[in-house]
Fold each of these.
Amino acid sequence: MARATKNGCNNHGTMRTGQSSVEIQQSILNHLHYTQAKPLPFATRNDWYMATAHSVRDQMLHNWLTTFDIFMSSPREKHKIVSYLSSEFLMGPHLGNNLVNLGLSESVRKALSALGQDLEAILAQEVEPGLGNGGLGRLAACYLESMATLRVPAVGFGIRYEFGIFDQEIHNGWQVEKGDNWLKNGNPWEVRRPDIAYEVKFGGHTEFAHDPEGRLAVRWIPEKVIKGVAYDTPVAGYRSGGVAVLRLWKSEAVASFDFQAFNAGEYYKAVDDKVLSETISKVLYPNDEPGIGKFLRLCQQYFFVSCSLQDMIWFHLSLGRGIESFSESFAIQINDTHPSMGIAELMRLLVDEHHLEWDEAWRITRESFAYTNHTLLSEALEKWPLPLMASVLPRIVEIIFEINRRFLDEVRGLFPEDDQRIARLSLIDETGEKYVRMANLACVGSHAINGVAALHTDLLKKTVLHDFYELFPEKFHNITNGVTPRRWLALSNPELAKLISSKLGEGWLSSIETALAWLQGAAKNTTFQQKWLKVKQANKIALAKVIRERIGIEVDPASLFDVQVKRIHEYKRQHLNVLHIITLYNRIKRDPTADITPRTFIFAGKAAPGYHMAKLIIKLITSVADVVNTDPDVAGRLKVVFFPDFNVTNSQLIVPAADLSEQISVAGKEASGTGNMKLALNGALTIGALDGANIEIREEVGKENFFLFGLEAAEAQSLKSGGYNPRCWYEGNEQLRQAIDQIDAGTFSNGDRQLFRPLVDNLLNRDEYLVLADYQSYIDCQDLVSAAYCDKKKWAEMSILNVAGMGKFSSDRAIREYGEKIWKTTAIIDPTKYVYAGSKGRDSKKGEDTGIHPTPRIRRSKTTESPLVS
Ligand SMILES: *Cc1c(COP(=O)(O)O)cnc(C)c1O
């Protein structure tokens, strides 16, 4: 099924409205009238939000079509598009970010206020699209925004889940999951494209025959065909005019009405069929969910890569190019192995449907695909039961077998007689029940493989992907993750951004890689420090207010805000943090007059619904909170808060208020982390082990400005291989023993000795993540944190130096590296050709410059004083 028309893309018209507040006010009224169809007196807050969003979207659609025109009229060698394939995109709320990136915040605020509306209330109306579990989906969102900012032609392909990640409520201290009905009030950001739709086959069997030229031709006779329809959401770049597209596929029945079934009186069977078709994009699976939903998840993955690849081929051919040059049009990045079936699917499309020879198709496929690995946890490496895959995707399995046969023949040539190596490299795991190993498929079918932090890439080469590294060393790259400073600083922490602008001038948000380092010169400046602390204090007061309103706990904004916000997982070691809280509590109980630096411990994060230990850790946190928060001996010096429903919206609220960032995963387990980057970028100091990107953060901010504890990855490895016995560590440490005994004895569970038994048993008998081994080092390090926090001036200096060192962790830097090392794309749309809508008709205010900012030539220097600092 192809699109109805071949796009005539020129002359798309002019801007519908200008960007002055008067023009925007008119646009909002028009949308209230013509889009929402509401008389003014009956307009709800949601109507105002929708009308505002549509007004902003108009501006973006214009930029988008302009981007497209420039793309089409630029030289052919620039016609390369980055396709970012990801089963998750955790975009966060759109409105605020689009206002920042388009430079429209002030004019929209003014327009709304003239209409009697408050921008903050309108912003709060947006339900965020929670189409991701955590870091991986959020990374995809940051990368789309950076590609738009850098004007790299880019499409993010994914699934339009009707229900995203569940909403989390806390009932009686336990996590309760609620369905996330994010579309119920309408989604003003997406454009449905009924003309962009593709058919996807499932089940059935294949038939082998020869075509008239005598070539083998395979037909896949499916049991079922499902249609994917595109929904496009524009993603605005920061003040560059560039727009990327997020194209999400919704599954639908091919024909919504099966006449034959209807005539036979089986109307409900026809409806059933429709329901089944629509199930594929119904719900996002929480990760770590064992077993159940396997079948649907497999269907989801194939569904979205098939639609995306058919769409890419359609576009490539519509440019008038031959199929054999496909890899000149697209650089396909797969975000973890979830889209790795795309490798086999592209082979199928090229060989079965476009009739290329296998070798030619294989060259194109390898040139097109690149694979980002995201995990070192071997249990998290995706593999599909072969019988399941063979029944759902018979043709794909045949192609995987053929890829494997040819690949293993090559390996045998290189390593004759090395059967063990061949068994490890095989795309099929045959050690017991048979599985298809998706990481192996991704490695074989890609020209580039990257890890997401230096340590992670190093460990990939040494462990998880060692055999592939020996085979293809030239394929391996490291590209350390990054986050966008627009959402994670300008939007979430506007006052800090303003203060930084007072030192760096405007324009630094598109060049933090070089610009932030200039803050080093201001780190010792007392006046600047005071302003810095004042901003942090205001952010803490704002968070304290939300905590009071939502959770009913009173916290002291003068206390140290100690923050651990991320998915709940044993390897991330939230329970190590809890052991520290109990240790401090015991110090107070031993001596209520003890000198304790007041702290507010803030936790947030979802546990996968089927991950019982993670859910028990949440219950432990809330149980310890109940005891500590109300104990008169504590006298309010310690407070423990579990902030429910961690998502992007809540993250933007918590991150700017953090003093201390807990990045305490056991060394060698966290691939990179991006929460660590967001928190440091907002002036939190990190307490962390040498894991993931923590190592590089510490190098950048200086080791004297980072609280390091714990074993290194190699030490952790050798401790475990040497027969680690957690019970020895427990018995040898009195404070640790006391804390664990209290959990076991029911001190935090009203005497219930059963409740936390699985957790205690696990720690004493297995402790896979070395909580007990790292305990003392962590406590000692926390004591240093407490002491450091008492010296406000020194703390402010360290906080400023942390932000000054964060330039490297911009997603702009990461995208530039992907472009240079992997995509080999020079396809950055020439800014001089750009007719940027924002360059006309703006009502400029201080800090709201909408022009294009060239990257300033600033050299990063640790020694020279910044001339910009007074
Ligand atoms: C950044 C982010 C994450 C990732 O946090 P890590 O600390 O890197 O695990 C997860 N969820 C949300 C909502 C985020 O914003």
Amino acid sequence: MQSLSWQQQLAQAIKTPEELLDYVGLEADSIGYSNKAIQKFPIRVPHNFANRIKHNDPNDPILRQIFPYLAEDDDIPAYVNDPLAENNFQPVQGLLHKYRSRVLSITTGACAIHCRYCFRRHFPYQEATSYKKHWEHGLDYIKNDHSIDEVILSGGDPLVLSDNRLDELISSISGIQHIERIRIHTRIPVVLSNRLTETLIKKIISYGKTIIFVTHINHANELNEQVEISIKILHKFNIMVLNQSVLLKGINDSANTLISLSKKLVEFNIIPYYLHMLDPVSGAAHYDVSIDKARQIIAQMQATVSGYLVPKLVREEIGMPGKTPMIN
Ligand SMILES: *Cc1c(COP(=O)(O)O)cnc(C)c1O
Ligand code: SF4
């Protein structure tokens, strides 16, 4: 599998429930899935990621992140399509300016994997693909606001863009003097590790801005040797790597699981940055962990391990000046 290019791996990713069940050795009768949910948000899992799922284990923590359970059909009023009301914070389509000093750019609607708990699962993909059209306006907006010193490339996943497109984005942002840092939010190092190459990273750093990567990893089982190799490329070029996770029921909702994850991250020289409360997006209520339980987990971590192994527990709240810390 490793000899396939990342584009081939993406093209050949698992896309049907039958194929997924077969791959992990489970019967549809024993687990059940939502046909309705996958019409709107299809399954997408590269084999190379799926091979970290334990065979014949319906509770595997990686399987649970990507499996369209029947519970996705549950209609729960507090869970909505756009829980963060992101449409209200876009001065230019595809550019989110919610917090001072930084803007977040939705570079693409596409991802290398479809995470079922994702708050962007109802994202209007057609609009996102027209994003390129709005980029020049986005750049002008950034140029005209000198209070912005950081641009975050997000999505979707910015690393599903071609090397050329990424180069265009990063060189154009780097041309703006008041931008000091460019941050890349991506799940690619853990999902399609061989997408990160020295050639690409050399290009990205060549414009002289500080580059920061923020990975998205929820469980220690996601980390393997291939991931380590891709992270080492980033470190070779002195790029800081942080990780954000989402607190997910049945996946990582215990202090021990999160401690194992943090230890493994630190072994890979990745700093545990944020632990996000789930955003109340429709179809994801079955992943919710209560705030009380979340606080208990963090308290238990704090009482057990080094401070840098404890990520900041935060929630995204509409109208706040930054992520809201859940622990004071
Ligand atoms: C999370 C987020 C950021 C980055 O927040 P940090 O606390 O700096 O990591 C920026 N913009 C938006 C819209 C975000 O959702
Ligand atoms: S990779 Fe990120 S944006 Fe894409 S589905 Fe997963 S959580 Fe959502």
Amino acid sequence: MTDFPPDPTLDPQNWPGFRRQAHRMLDDMIDYVAGIRERPVWQPIPSTVRDHFREAFPWSPAALEQVHGEFLDYVLPYAGGNVHPGFMGWVQGGGTPAGMLAEMLAGGLNANLGGRDQAPIEVERQIVAWMRELFEFPPEASGLFVTGTSMANLLAVLVARHSRLGPEARRSGIGAAGSQLRAYASQTAHGCVSQAMDLAGLGAASLRLIAADTRFRIEIPALRAAIARDRQEGLTPFLVVASAGTVDAGAVDDLDAIAALCRQEGLWFHIDGAYGALGMLSPAVAPRLKGITKADSIAFDFHKWGQVPYDAGFLLVRDGRQHYETFASPAAYLRRETRGLSAGSPWPCDFGPDLSRGFRALKTWFTLKVLGAQAIGASIARSCALAEYLQAQIEAEPALELLAGAQLNIVCFRYRASDPDRVNAAIVVDIQESGIAAPSTTSINGKLAIRAALFNHRTQKQDIDALLNAALRFGKDRQ
Ligand SMILES: *Cc1c(COP(=O)(O)O)cnc(C)c1O
């Protein structure tokens, strides 16, 4: 064995030096979050910075300190900005320092939550139990962490498909019966719902997009009529996807009415509650979600209104057996035992397509426990109050036009101009480039809107005022 390679591991050669550098990195990140308000929300990436990411493949080592320096210079200043209180674009959470630390702990533990008898899976099961409680689901309900609601909606469509077609479809494909399946969602539903139908092999066109009312909620009579029409044509309605918080306007479908309709028609009742579902944490917001507890499945994200660092999507399924039967696959190398490391079946890998899985549950567990669910609920309620404040300011300002009022925490508006779509698109980019705030755009009844989605728990009235002042100033400049 004289030629045996000398380096025994990839661990640091100098642990005390590593420790000192590690503490500096932690301090830097704490400073970053604590001082976030002093920074621009976002800034464009200079070409010199972009060029930095075209370097040669790193065959040789570099000091941790040096790579961290590159992170500080080339990555950190040019992030998307969602930690900042002025970030109001799209639907993104702000994260929390406690969640950040949990990410470090999870990285150190390097747990693989696909399965096996280990406490990290008990942490995930704890979250599942808490979510059962929050949504009043029965003890046999199952839950699973996934990347995000896009994935959770896909898994829900697969569970609903399985509940209708049975196990044979897993082996032979969806067949003729599967090609007859039809699902229903509002025109204002998130695009990932039709993508889920596509990925599930059912076809995006098999999702009927039903008209929405003036408050962007699915029209129940139109939904009922579409189901009847499909039945008349010999098709098989099987699923309704309701929205609890639409991306554009924060609309919540009439969940009670849809629950009743689904029961009557024998359809799977899934809710895309990507951000809205966690409104259940606030006594002020929960009543707007009435009926959510009647769903067959709910998809939502801890990383949006729940402020858990990315990513932390979640799927909750009332009938855990259906959920298990949709995904469980026997494999010799995943054999279960009643004792030893292979005990504790079923495992998370039996409830979804991922085998290797990170410890998303830990940052969620830390966030909920350290902050307390009540405080998260209060920040959810505050963001709704801020949206109402924003709406009132818009209504009081003749230069601005309200396009979608606050139903939860999203408000859409525009600057009055002769060429409003062009001017408002430019205003949004101007505001983003100014570093003052980061709204995004959407289309409301065919009109390009400035969309302020208030998800960041750090956002305050002064940030709303800054957004409005910027919109007015850039709007005037663009006239
Ligand atoms: C964000 C969002 C999604 C997608 O969730 P991801 O976590 O980004 O995959 C789906 N539906 C709604 C209503 C959303 O807000």
Amino acid sequence: MAEMNLPLSDLGRMHINLNDQFGAHNYHPIPVVLARGEGEWVWDVDGKRYLDMLSAYSAVNQGHVHPRMVATLAEQASKITLTSRAFYNDQLGPWLKELTSLCGGGRALPMNSGAEAVETAVKLARKWGYLSKKVEQDKAEIVVCDANFHGRTTMIVGFSSDPQYRADFGPFAGGFKIIPYGDAQALKNAITPNTVAFLVEPIQGEAGVIVPPEGYLAECDRICKQNNVLFIADEIQTGLCRTGKMFCFQHETCKPDLLILGKALGGGFYPISAVVGDDSVLGLLKPGDHGSTFGGNPLACALSRTALKILQDEQLDRRAADLGNLFRNRLRAKLPKSVVREVRGKGLLNAIEIEPSAGTARKYSERLALRGVLAKETRTTTIRFAPPLVIRQESMEWALQQIEEAFCQD
Ligand SMILES: *Cc1c(COP(=O)(O)O)cnc(C)c1O
């Protein structure tokens, strides 16, 4: 793989060498070694400044080291950080109330990573299928989509359609059926009496910011409800203001039975994830059915409470909607058609699709890094742009200038 000729200092090179020598090589990072962040900006070990247009895959919607998050971290860390669920703590209850009220009611179950929350949703859907829908034991089916991304556990990669995610990691768990994304009729055809749930991303982020046809989510929701199938929205990446609404499903008239959240739920400070849903599903769990040592710990909950308040107080949904429109309109008008096939997305979850004849996404993301804009290719010809939602308009204007120049360079 051709490495970019980014002028790396000895210090930067030293850190990369440590990764190469002692780490597992399960990532291919852009060779930038970050040491500090503030809002939409990050600095490398040599003090060079970059605009962060990835936001840790949408986990830093609130911006780097938000002062309110820093204050909450210090305050809660000096009180109590971990109790386990063997006891109650004074942060979990208020967090559950605030989160469920934001989601329109119901109950919530806290976990840590996104993948754990997806695992939890699968367990809940199956339990609901056996207890409520009366599916025969071990026959429950869950419908998922082609090119899905729901995490990296062995169960989850078992229903991935990406050969690399699966290769050499089998055997896999059964009970999943893959259908094309964006095709509601395919869902209708896939449902059998044993189908307990449809698990879907409202926009497929990792697949390259694939926006389904308008009305798709509403139609799937309707089909699920008609067939007594749970509609599960994985909003780990699309949720929490990223697409211009608090949740992406709110762009359409639908109501998921289970909502899966993660990433920005911890404001970039602490891993926390959740499954939110109605009592008719969440209420089926009994003590001992499920758990997590760190899930619902007071430090995570305190930080998440502040993370949710920031989203609302700073109206980051509106910022994402407005700046997203600016981003797409400007680039659609300015980028050369010979190089860029499409600019797509919603809110501040966007992608540039490059003409294969114009080179790889990696080439352009490296060019952008040289210009001080950090974005990461997600597929061979796709670059995703997902800056912190606190990004200032003048920073966005500057980034657009850099993107235009990088794509017009030859
Ligand atoms: C990131 C992501 C996950 C997995 O979250 P982790 O915290 O990395 O386990 C699951 N689903 C979607 C849609 C994601 O973007």
